[in-house]
C-alpha cells in the first residue's frame, strides 16, 4: 500500500526586519501560494504599525491568513494558533494552492510543524502566586527559571513574563522541566512535508534595517496608533500592549521617557529580540539558511521542493 502523501508547506522564518514579508509575497506570487502568518502580535486588530503588519496593498497581492483575528484584550495561545492554522492550511491545500508559513514567532512554527507536547492545564492560583512574587522582587522568576531550566530560560529571555510563568507553572505541577517535556515528546506529530527557509542577513545590514524600521514606525504614526488603542480601552497592562513598540510608545505617552530616548531604547530592544530569535531558529533542525538578497537561490530551492 502506498503511504498517503503529506501536504507540502513552505516556512519562511527569521529575525524581525529580516525581510520575511517581502520574500513570502514574492514566493507566493510565483507558486500560487497563500501566506499563513506566524506572528504573535499580527493576530491582533488595530495593531498595525508596531507589529509591522503587511500593508493592505501587500495583503491584496496574495491572500494572507492569521492576521487581525483577535482583539488586543483577548488571549491567544500557541495551541490555539496551531489549531486554527492547521485548518487554514488544509483548506489552502484542498483548493490546490501552496501554504507559506511566514513569521518570526518560533514557537508557533515549531508546534505547527511538529505538534504539541502534553502539558498541564493552567493553574490560576499558582500563576497569581508567581505574579505576586515577581511584583515583590522583579526579575526573580527569570532567575529561578534560569536555575531550574537554563535551556528554556535562554530561549524565553528575561522579558517574556508570560512564558516564564508558564515554564515555572509546568515545573511546579509536573516536577519536570519544560525542556525535558519537549525532549520526551520529540515533536513527532509531523503532518506536513516542509521546506524550512531561514533568513539570515549580515548582522550590520540587519541592524541597519531595524533602525530604519523603528524610525519609519515613529514617523508613520506609532504614537497615534498606541493612543487610539488606549482610547478603545486597551490599556498598557495588556500582554499585547507590552510588545515591542507599543511598550515604548506607552512610556512616551505617559511622560516617562522622551521621544529620542524611547526611540533609542526601542532600537536596542529590537536588536536584542532579533538575537533571541536567531538563537531559537538556529536550534531548529532542517533549516536552510539564506541571505534575503539571495531571492534566486531561494526560488530555485522552492521550485525543486514543489517538483519533487
TrEMBL record:
Its BP terms in the Gene Ontology are:
tRNA modification
- Region named Interaction with substrate tRNA: 39-42
Highest taxon above the source species: Bacteria
Q: Nucleotide-binding among the record's keywords?
A: yes
Q: State the needed cofactors, names only.
A: Mg(2+)
Q: Which residues bind substrate?
A: 16-21
MF terms from GO for this chain are: ATP binding; tRNA dimethylallyltransferase activity
| Function description | Catalyzes the transfer of a dimethylallyl group onto the adenine at position 37 in tRNAs that read codons beginning with uridine, leading to the formation of N6-(dimethylallyl)adenosine (i(6)A).
- Give the protein name, as stated in the record: tRNA dimethylallyltransferase
Its taxonomic path starts at: Bacteria, Pseudomonadati, Thermodesulfobacteriota, Desulfomonilia, Desulfomonilales
As recorded in Swiss-Prot or TrEMBL, the protein's gene is named: miaA
Amino acid at each position: 500500500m502506498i503511504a498517503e502523501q503529506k501536504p507540502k508547506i513552505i516556512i519562511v522564518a527569521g529575525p524581525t526586519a529580516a525581510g520575511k514579508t517581502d520574500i513570502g509575497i514574492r514566493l507566493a506570487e510565483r507558486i500560487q501560494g497563500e501566506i499563513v502568518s506566524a506572528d504573535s502580535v499580527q493576530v491582533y486588530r488595530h495593531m498595525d504599525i508596531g507589529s509591522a503588519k503587511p500593508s493592505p496593498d501587500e495583503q491584496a497581492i496574495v491572500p494572507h491568513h492569521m492576521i487581525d483575528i483577535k482583539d488586543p484584550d483577548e488571549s491567544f495561545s500557541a495551541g490555539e494558533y496551531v489549531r486554527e492554522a492547521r485548518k487554514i492550511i488544509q483548506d489552502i491545500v484542498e483548493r490546490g494552492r501552496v501554504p507559506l508559513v511566514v513569521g518570526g514567532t518560533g514557537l508557533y512554527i515549531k508546534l505547527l510543524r511538529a505538534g504539541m507536547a502534553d502539558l498541564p492545564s493552567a493553574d490560576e492560583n499558582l500563576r497569581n502566586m508567581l505574579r505576586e512574587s515577581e511584583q515583590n522582587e522583579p526579575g526573580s522568576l527569570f532567575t529561578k527559571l534560569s536555575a531550574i531550566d537554563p535551556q528554556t530560560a535562554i530561549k524565553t529571555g528575561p522579558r517574556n513574563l508570560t512564558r516564564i510563568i508558564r515554564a515555572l507553572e509546568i515545573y511546579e505541577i509536573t516536577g519536570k522541566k519544560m525542556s525535558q517535556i519537549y525532549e520526551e515528546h520529540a515533536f513527532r506529530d509531523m503532518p506536513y512535508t516542509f521546506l524550512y527557509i531561514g533568513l539570515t542577513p549580515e548582522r550590520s545590514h540587519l541592524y541597519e534595517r531595524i533602525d530604519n524600521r523603528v524610525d519609519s514606525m515613529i514617523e508613520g504614526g506609532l504614537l497615534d496608533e498606541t493612543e487610539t488603542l488606549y482610547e478603545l480601552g486597551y490599556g498598557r497592562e495588556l500582554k499585547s500592549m507590552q510588545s515591542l513598540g507599543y511598550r515604548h510608545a506607552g512610556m512616551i505617552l505617559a511622560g516617562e521617557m522622551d521621544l529620542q530616548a524611547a526611540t533609542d531604547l526601542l532600537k536596542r530592544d529590537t536588536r536584542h529580540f532579533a538575537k533571541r530569535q536567531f538563537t531559537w531558529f538556529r536550534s531548529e533542525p532542517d533549516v536552510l539558511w539564506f541571505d534575503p538578497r539571495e531571492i534566486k537561490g531561494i526560488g530555485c530551492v522552492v521550485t525543486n521542493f514543489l517538483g519533487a
